[in-house]
Amino acid sequence: MIIDRAINGKEKLKTSSKKLNSNQGRELIMQIPESTRYEIKMETEQSMLPQLVSWLRVHPAGFYKAYPDRQVNNVYFDTPHLSSFAENLSGISVRRKMRLRWYGNESENIQATLEIKCKRNQHGWKKSQRLSKPLNLNNTSWIDLRKLIREELKPDIQSFFDHSCWPVILNQYYREYYLSFDGKVRITIDFSQKVYNQMLYGYPNFTFPVPISNQVVVEVKANTMHRDNLAEIISHIPLRVSKHSKFALAMEAIFF
Q1: Which one of 86, 95, 130, 203 is most buried, by most CB atoms within 10 A?
Q2: pLDDT at 32
Q3: Residue 117: other Cβ atoms inside 10 A
Q4: Region of residue 192 (phi > 0: left; psi between -120 and 50: alpha; otherwise: beta)
Q5: Strands, DSSP E only, in the chain?
Q6: Which pLDDT score, from 0 to 100, does residue 26 have?
Q7: Which of 221, 222, 212, 217 has its CA nearest to residue 244?
Q8: What is the rounded distance in angstroms from the CA atom of residue 137 to the CA atom of residue 161?
């Protein structure tokens, strides 16, 4: 059982990352596209959220609310050997993970996008496809949901999906969006995260959450051409820089 192997400890999971060079879909991340984003993450306690918003309001870069707040929902997929999780634990510079994302409080008739999130060092990009047909996560089995998703995918994304189509976690959180006055830097603030294990369920589990630390995650993002702006931006936000991964933290909460 993969769960038994995972519970044995992180070291065993880390070793599986050595096998990733031959995995299908590797070509999706080997070449950095011309347009990538550079990202810095920070984190703090939820009690600091009002103070954090105050810092942004008086920030010299003139940050303002770019979009209404909304709930973000993700189902993360992995291989039966948890290769994406192993990549994250091992700290290798090149890694990818796949998720189904949608917004709002609904789980019926959702308009979702399948994303392959790729990262090389601090450079990140996504390969994504919006699904044309709505999905019902309330009373559709994971077997049927995978079939519905797969039949819509383009060949290159379908190849990766065939390799990493095991649903492992579902997470939900609220997100605030900020944009600098010059439009070059974006900041998102994520809070009130909930996590649901999907590995033991035949249908999407929205009922039994996994206990997890309730951190606020701040992501400061810019296109690579504007990456030099980020050092000045974060110097006015007195929080520690972190390698926070919601996916990895959720998986660790389940296994460790």
Answers
A1: 86
A2: 67
A3: 20
A4: left
A5: 37-45, 64-78, 94-103, 113-120, 123-130, 166-179, 185-197, 215-223, 241-242
A6: 53
A7: 217
A8: 18
**Residues contacting residue 185 through CB under 8 Å, at least 6 positions apart:** 61, 179, 220, 221, 222, 226, 229, 230, 233
Residue with tokens 């999906």: 161
CATH number, residue 41:
2.40.320.10
The label of the residue with tokens 């039994």 reads 208
How confident is the model over 248-254, as a mean pLDDT? 93
Between 169 and 119, the higher pLDDT residue: 169
Q: Report the domain count for the chain.
A: 1
Q: Which domain holds residue 76?
A: 2-255
> What does the pLDDT look like over 11-42, one tens digit per residue?
444 444 444 443 544 555 456 666 788 999 99
142-150 and 155-163 are packed helices; what angle lies between their axes, rounded to 10 degrees?
160
Which residues neighbour 106 within 8 Å (Cβ) at sequence distance 6 or greater? none
Side chain identity at residue 115, one-letter code = E
Yes or no: say if 201 and 15 are a contact pair by the CB < 8 Å rule.
Answer: no
Mean pLDDT of the chain: 88
pTM: 0.88
60 Rama class: left (phi>0) / alpha (psi -120 to 50) / beta = alpha
For the record, the structure tokens of 40 come out as 């810095």
Check if the beta carbon of residue 253 is closer than 8 Å to that of residue 247.
Answer: no
CA angle 187, 191, 196 (to 5 degrees): 125
DSSP 76-140: EEE-TT-HHHHHHHHT-SEEEEEEEEEESS--SSB--EEEEEEEETTEEEEEEEE-SS-B--SS-
